[in-house]
Amino acid sequence: MKKTTLFLMGLALSASVVMAQDKPAATTTPTATTTTATAATGDPVIITAGDIVIKQSEFESALKTLPAEYQSYAMGPGKKQFGEDYLRMKMLAQMGYKAGLQNDPAVQQQLALMKDNLVANAQLGQIDKSVTLNDADLQKIYDANKKDYEQVKARHILIAFKGSPAAPQGKPELTEEQAKTKAEAIKKQLDGGAKFEDLAKKESDDTGSGANGGELGAFGHGQMVPEFEKAAFDAKIGDVIGPVRTQFGYHIIKVDSHEYTPFETVKATIEKREHQKALQAKLDSLKSDAKPVFSDAYFPPPPPPAAAAPAESKAPAPAATKPSEKHNEKKPAKP
C-alpha cells in the first residue's frame, strides 16, 4: 500500500476540522511583507496555491492527525507528498464551501459526529490524566499480590510411565507401578548422599533438563502443572521431595531457592495495569450513573451460542516447559 493512501487517514481528520467551521477560514494572498512577518514569528507560510495559504503550524497540526507509526515518514521522506495531499484536501474543501456542500444535511450529520468524537476523545484524555498512582499505591498493590511474583528455582528427575507425553522413545515402557518404584529407589539414593545432578543426567526421562543436572530454572505460579507446582512451592530450600505424580510421570524435585521478582522490576507493569483498571472503572461508573436504557426492540438480545464442538485432545506440555505469559514478564534475569 502506498504511503500516500495512508496519508488520507490523517487528512480525513484534518478535513473535519476545516469543514466543522461555519464558513471557510479567511485566506489572503501572501506578499513579501506577510511572508517575512510570519517567518519572523516562527510560523512561516510553507504552501500557497491561489488564495490558499498554509502556515507551518497548520501543516504540522495536520501531520499529528496521522497514526503514530506514519508520522516519522511524513515528517521525513514523505513530507512533500503529504504536503501535496494536504493541499489537495484544502483545495477540494474550498470548492465544496463555494458550492455550499457544508450545508448538505448528510455533511452536517457527519460534521456533528466528528465534532462529538473529537470532544469525547479530549474528555477521555482529561479523565486519563486524572488517574494517578504514586509509588506508595503501587507498593501496596505489589505487597497484597506478592504471591503472584514468587518464584522457585528447582531441579527434577522425571521417570515417565506408559502413555506419558514425556515417555522416551527407544527405552522399555514402564507401568505406573514400575515407574513409581524406580522413582522411590532414586529418592533413596539421593537420601543416601548421591548427587542429584549425576542421577538427573543418568536417569531422568526429561532429557532436556536432565542434561543440565535436572535444572528447570526459576518459574512462577501457573507455569507448571498443579501437582508439580504445589510440591515445589511448599518445599523448603534444599529439600528433595517425591515421588510426585503428574500426567508426565513421577518426579523427584530438589528446591534450590525461593525468591520474589523485585518491586522495581515489575513496577511499570503494575502501574500500566492498575492505571487501565482505574480508567475503566471511571468509565463504567460514568455509564452506570447515567442509568442508560436501550430499546429491546432495536437491540434484541444475541442468539444463544451454538453447541461447541468437542475439543481435540491435546497433550499438555511437560512440567518443565509449560509456559505462562502471565509470568514471563516477571521472571528475573539470570546472573
What does this structure look like?
This protein is α+β, with helices and mostly antiparallel strands. Among the domains are: 3-102, no CATH class; 142-260, Chitinase A, domain 3, CATH 3.10.50. The protein contains 13 helices and six strands. The protein has helices spanning 3-19, 32-40, 56-63, 68-75, 79-98, 105-130, 135-144, 176-191, 196-203, 207-210, 226-234, 263-290, 325-328; strands at 45-49, 52-55, 150-159, 215-220, 240-246, 249-260. Strands 4-3-6-5 form a four-stranded antiparallel β-sheet. Strand 1 and strand 2 form a beta hairpin. Helix 1 runs parallel beside helix 5 (79-98) and helix 7 packs across helix 12 (263-290). It starts with a helix and ends in a 7-residue tail after the last helix. Residues 1-39 and 312-335 have low confidence and may be disordered.
User: Portion of residues in helices?
Assistant: 40-55%
Q: Within the largest sheet, what's the order of strands?
A: 4-3-6-5
Q: Which segments are poorly predicted (pLDDT under 50) over 5 or more consecutive residues?
A: 1-39, 312-335
Helices and strands, in N-to-C order?
A: HHEEHHHHHEHHHEHEEHH
Count of discrete alpha- or pi-helical segments spanning 4 or more residues:
13
Main sheet properties = 4 strands, antiparallel
CATH topology of one domain: Chitinase A, domain 3
CATH architecture of one domain: Roll
**Number of DSSP E strands:** 6
**Overall mean confidence score, pLDDT:** 83
Radius of gyration: 33 Å
Please report the first level of CATH classification, the CATH class of one domain.
Alpha Beta
Q: Termini separation (Å)?
A: 46 Å
